[in-house]
Structure formats: structure tokens, C-alpha cells
Amino acid sequence: MTADGEIIHFDNVGLRYGTDREVLSDLTFTLHAGRFYFLTGASGAGKTSLLRLLYLAQRPSRGGIRMFGTDVITLPRAELPVMRRRVGVVFQDFRLVDHLSAYDNVALPLRVAGHSEQDLAGPVRDILEWVGLADRMDAPPATLSGGEQQRVAIARAVIARPAMLVADEPTGNVDTDMAAKLIRLFDMLNRQGTTVVVATHDLDLLRKVPDSLIMRLDKGRLSDPTGALRYPPRKLT
Amino acid sequence: MTVRPGWMRRLAGSGRVELIPQGRMSGPMPWVIAIMVAMTAIALAAGLALGNAVSAARAEIEGGVTVQIIEPRPEVRAEQAALAIRAIETMPGVAGIRQVPQAELDALIEPWLGTGVTGAAAGMPGIPVPSLIDVRLEGAVTPAKLAQIAQRVEQVAPSARVDAQSNWLKPVFEAMLSLQVLAMVVVALLAVALAAAVLLAARSALGTNRNTIEIVHLLGGTDAQVARVFQRSIGYDAAGGGAVGLALALVVVLALGRRFEGLGAGLVDYGALLWSDWLWLAAVPVLATLLAMLTARLTVLHVLRKML
């Protein structure tokens, strides 16, 4: 994080897959620490592509990206894992590891980071309790409901206390009540200091987090309906 | 695949959780490795046995010279043989000399010509058989030493013919060495085939587990961590398959060893395996496991390098 609270800065970023036209064009914006961002836009607007750039699954075709004060475009590949550990990701399709239990799925980021079994047991149990899955720790994902899988995915995303949490359509596969609970969960994390970026096309969600800022993508370009992308950002009223 | 409860897995795996689903000794890979190791160990045993046979036989005959007195008249033959022995035994570098007894000569030709054909037993004239003199030199027979002996013998026994024993067996040695080289080439080819099989298995496993690997990557996992998982998995398969393959090879080698023992056939008797050879055979599954793990690691790292 820089002195002015910037954690992400995109500078004229463009992304194309192969030789197709650009799916993201001329993106220039800054995300600040401790904020809650909604990324909206119609299906195919480029939300998932933008999130993939944020969680370092993809490098842009052009432009510059600075994350946590580091230029990730020139960052050697070997140093990407350390950067990725600072970003928690909730995938649209959860992407839990099928043959691992809920406990082992949640423990995965800590194991990858080299924590011992002794050190990670407490935090993993605590967070599963926090998301209401204390009694399903040993259950494999296939035996969990959609909402339970979503909560395991969220627990996995936040277990390592990332500086930023990125969620792609986290409420797309759950009912309205569960969607509201999940958003409250994200809000709670945000209040604890985690920057949250949630991609959604459900505009009702925006009202559930009053202090959130909105980034709207339209055909791969970013519009700025709330002024959230200016610095200093203006709060949504 | 059944998923065991977490506590059971952690207990069984000493806290190690398998990132990719693995069944020990399941799938074709351990059995492919078992067959490769068995064939490698058998080929290696054959190569080592041939090497031993060649070395032992060479040591046995490398200082040997045979003098034949090719003379049809028995009394002249006996006289020239006695003179040749006297001439040779005073030469420097001669460790021993003996005339091959008539009984031994009879025994040598008996399988082809039957008994009593030399007439020696009945005191009757029969087929003339050359007298043989077996000379042992202190070192290996060289062309110069051979020429010296031939020159000395020629003066007293004009009917003599002098040969180095190793010359007779030279084509046999060459054939055995060719077989030994062939055995080593087979060992090398099997090692290449094993590496290729592991490479294909690792690529296939990478494809099957691509989703898990991507997740681990996105959670901050390094290439080395992912490679270690595959390396360990292939290592278990290779160690299990290797042990089975070695057991199979030992049964074959011991059974063949017994068969050859029963032959009692000259050079073959020298082809027994030494204790150091058994160590080499025991090292085959260990080396195969290391080769498989190294191949898996390099394959996985190569494929992962193409991912961000």
C-alpha cells in the first residue's frame, strides 16, 4: 500500500485474448485500501476479465498495473505467488478442490504459505465456525449445498487475511436470503480493513452496502457513475 | 475415489494432505514401472553375468599356450613332445608346463569318434592324434612371447604348432562382448522408455488436475510446490512398481541361474553373479524411482512455466 492508501492502480490497461478485439480497453483507475467496491455491468461487459487482472490470473495486453506499490507487469513470474497471497478470491463457480474436505479447502492458502498444521488448525476451525460450517468441516464439497460451498469459498478467500478480497458474482448461485447474508459477511470483512471488490450484475446488492463505491463496465470500458474512481473518491449517496 | 475423513487423512499422512487425488499402486503407471524395472534388472543381470564369464575365462586362459605335435608316427611324436617340453621349461617367464595325458586326449575326442580309436589302450596303431602340451606363462601371452616359444620349439620339434589359447576363443569373447553391449543398450533404452512413460503420465495427470493446479496457483502456490506434489505421487508409484519389478526379476534371474548351473558348460559356469552385481540389481528400482521423480519434476515445471 502506498502512502495515499492506493493498493491498485491501472494505467491505460487493455486486454485482448489472442487476436480478437479488446475485451477491456483504456482502463485507468485506482483502488484504495479499506474501501468496498462493486463492479457492475451487463453480461459480457468484461467484469470477469477485469477481476482476472486483479487476482493476477492474467497479464494485460497493454498498459501498466501497480499492485501494493509494485509494478506487476515487470514483476518476475517467480515473485507472483507472494503477490497473489495478498489477494483473496471468491470464484463465480467456487472452484473448491473436489477431493478435499471443507477443512482442507479452507486450509489450502495457509498450507501453500507454509504454515504448520499446528498453526493453521485453530484459525481454520474459527473461520469455519464464523461462516457457520463448524459441523461440516470434514464434508467434501460435493455433499455441501450451494450456499455452504459458497461460504467455504469465502472462508478460503479470507483465511490468510488478504489485503484485498475479490469476488466474482458471489451471489449468482444462491437465493436472496443467502445473498444478503454473504454481502453482510463481505461488509463485515471490509469493516475489519480488507478492501473488497465484488463483481455483480444484481443492482439490489449495491443498496445493501451503503458506503460502497461503484465501478461500471460497459463493453470493456469503465464508466464512472458515482465518481468513485476519482481521487479522493466520493461516497455513494 | 473415496474421500477419507480429514482427521484420518491427517493421521495417516502425518499431516500431509494430498493436493491431487492419489491411489497408491493404482492405475497403470506402477505396473508399467514394474515391468520396466523387471526387464532392466534381467538385462543388467545378463550383461553382468556375461561380463563375469568373459573376465573369468580370459583370466583363466590369458597366460595359456598350447603346443601341438602333429606327427603321425607315435614314437617320433613322443620324442618331439619330450624335447619340446625340455626346451620350453627352461625359458624365462614360464610358470608351468604339462603334457596332456593320453587318457584326457581320448576323453576329448570320445564324443566325436568313440572309444579306442587312438589304439592307445590296446597298444594297437589307431588314428593319430596330436600330442598336446599345455604351457602357462607368468603374464598374458603376447605375440612376441608366442614367437619366441615357437622359434625355440621349432628347433627340436619340427612338427610342432604353437597357439595362444586366447586366440581360439577370440570369436567367442567378441560374441559375448557384443551381447554384453546389447544388454547395456537395452538397459539404456528401457531407462529412456521409463522416462517417456513418466512424462506422458505426468502430462496426463497435469491435464486431469488442471483445475486444482490453477486454484493452487491463484492461492499463491509456487511451481515448485505443485511439482513436488507430482514428484511425490510418481515417486510412490515408482517405488512400489520398482519393488514388484525387482522381485519378479530376482525370481527370473535365480531360476535361470539354476538352469545354467545344471548345464555345467565351460564358460557358462563362470557367469555367476558377484555380490557387487546383486547390489547393482538392487539399485535398479532405486535409480528408476529417482529417474521417474526427476522426469516428473522437470515435466511439470516445464508445463507450469507456460502458465502465468
Could you characterize what this model shows?
The complex is a heterodimer of chains A (237) and B (308). Chain A is α/β, with parallel strands linked by helices. Chain A has a domain at 96-161. Helix content of chain A is 31%, strand content 23%. Chain A has helices spanning 47-54, 80-84, 102-112, 117-130, 146-158, 176-191, 203-208, and strands at residues 6-15, 24-32, 36-40, 62-67, 70-71, 87-90, 164-168, 195-199, 213-218, 221-223. Chain A is globular, with a radius of gyration of 17 Å. The mean pLDDT of chain A is 88. Chain B is α+β, with helices and mostly antiparallel strands. In chain B, α3 (74-89) packs across α5 (143-156). Chain B is elongated and about 100 Å long. Classes of the chains: A alpha/beta (237), B alpha+beta (308). Chains A and B meet through α2 and α3 of A and α1 and α7 of B.
Question: Could you give a short description of this structure?
Answer:
The complex is a heterodimer of chains A (237) and B (308). By secondary structure, chain A is of the alpha/beta class.
What descriptors fit this protein?
heterodimer, A: 237 residues, alpha/beta, 6-stranded mixed sheet, 4-stranded antiparallel sheet, globular, B: alpha+beta, 2 domains, 9 helices, 4 strands, ATP-binding (chain A), ABC_transpr_LolD-like (chain A), Cell_div_FtsE (chain A), AAA+_ATPase (chain A), nucleotide-binding (chain A)
Strand content of chain A: 15-25%
User: What's the oligomerization state?
Assistant: heterodimer
Overall geometry of chain A comes to globular
Which strands sit side by side, in order, in the main sheet of chain A?
A: 6-7-8-3-9-10
Radius of gyration computed on alpha carbons of chain A: 17 Å
The strand order across the widest sheet of chain B is 2-3-1-4
Alpha-beta classification of chain B: alpha+beta
State the low-pLDDT regions of chain A, or none.
Answer: none
What's the mean pLDDT score of chain A? 88
Q: Tell me, what's the shape of chain B?
A: elongated
* Number of helical regions of chain B: 9
What is the N-to-C succession of helices and strands of chain B?
A: HHEHEHEHEHHHH
Average of pLDDT of chain B: 82
Please give the share of residues in helix of chain A. Answer: 25-40%
Helix and strand pattern of chain A: EEEHEEHEHHHEHEHEE
Which sheet architecture does the biggest sheet of chain B show?
A: 4 strands, antiparallel
> Uncertain runs of chain B with pLDDT below 50, 5 residues or more?
1-15
- Report, as a whole number of angstroms, the end-to-end distance of chain A: 27 Å
Terminal Cα span of chain B: 30 Å
Largest sheet of chain A: 6 strands, mixed
Protein name (chain A): Cell division ATP-binding protein FtsE
GO molecular function (chain A): ATP binding
Subunit structure (chain A): Homodimer. Forms a membrane-associated complex with FtsX.
Membrane topology (chain A): Peripheral membrane protein
